[in-house]
Amino acid sequence: MVYTTMEGALFEPTLYIVKGMCILDNDGNRVLAKYYDKDVLPTPKEQKAFEKNLFNKTHRANSEIIILDGLTCVYKSNVDLFFYVMGSSHENELILQSVLNALYESVSILLRRNVEKRILMDSLDAVMLAFDEICDRGVILDSDPTSIVGRAALRTEDVPLGEQTVVQALYNIMNNNY
């Protein structure tokens, strides 16, 4: 199956929808970022330049979407953090928006509704796990915040060792919980 865009370009449908996700602080500095397509922003230097440009274009805007450097970017801000999800220019914005909402709501639940940089930095490991639970190499895995948090939360006494993720087990071993 091949789809045609309004410009007449042909492209194959793919599951690799998300090109990247990032969280920036109110100065435009990276707090957390993950890029999934090596053809788009392959080096950290290019990623940082893109993030700086993205922040400069969006930190004062009232919209929720922008096309920048051939990427469709949806975003949301709260207090001192900006959340971004990027996809290709022909990607469906509603799908990207659902990923953004899943990311924001998951972080909000993990941080107990206090979505601020200082609190996020204290729970960075759980937020990183949430990133991984939402998307794997650009393929959307889940968009339900409660199930994402259920798998990403670092619970020590509730989860038996055999059912923990590797990160949870290492965390518990390092903190002598076993």
Give your account of this protein's structure.
- The mean pLDDT is 85.
- The protein is of the alpha+beta class and 178 residues long.
- β1 (3-4) and β2 form a beta hairpin.
- The chain has one domain: 2-Layer Sandwich (Beta-Lactamase).
- Helix content is 38%, strand content 24%.
- The chain is globular and about 50 Å long.
- The N and C termini lie far apart (52 Å).
How are the SSEs placed, and which strands pair?
Blueprint lengths: L2 E2 L5 E2 L6 E8 L4 E6 L8 H15 L6 E4 L2 E8 L2 E8 L4 H18 L6 H6 L1 H11 E2 L2 E2 L4 H8 L13 H9 L4
Antiparallel strand pairs: 1-2, 3-4, 3-7, 5-6, 6-7, 8-9
Helix pairs in contact: 2-4, 2-5, 4-5
Subcellular location: Cytoplasm; Golgi apparatus membrane; Cytoplasmic vesicle, COPI-coated vesicle membrane
Membrane topology: Peripheral membrane protein
Organism: Bicyclus anynana (Squinting bush brown butterfly)
Question: Any key phrases for this structure?
Answer:
178 residues; alpha+beta; Beta-Lactamase; five-stranded antiparallel sheet; two-stranded antiparallel sheet; 9 strands; protein transport; membrane; Coatomer_zeta; Longin-like_dom_sf
Distance between the termini: 52 Å
**Uncertain stretches:** none
Number of separate domains:
1
CATH topology: Beta-Lactamase
Strand proportion, as a percent range, falls in: 15-25%
The biggest beta sheet reads: 5 strands, antiparallel
- Physical arrangement of strands within the biggest beta sheet: 4-3-7-6-5
Quick summary:
InterPro entries: AP_mu_sigma_su, Coatomer_zeta, Longin-like_dom_sf. By secondary structure, this protein is an alpha+beta fold.
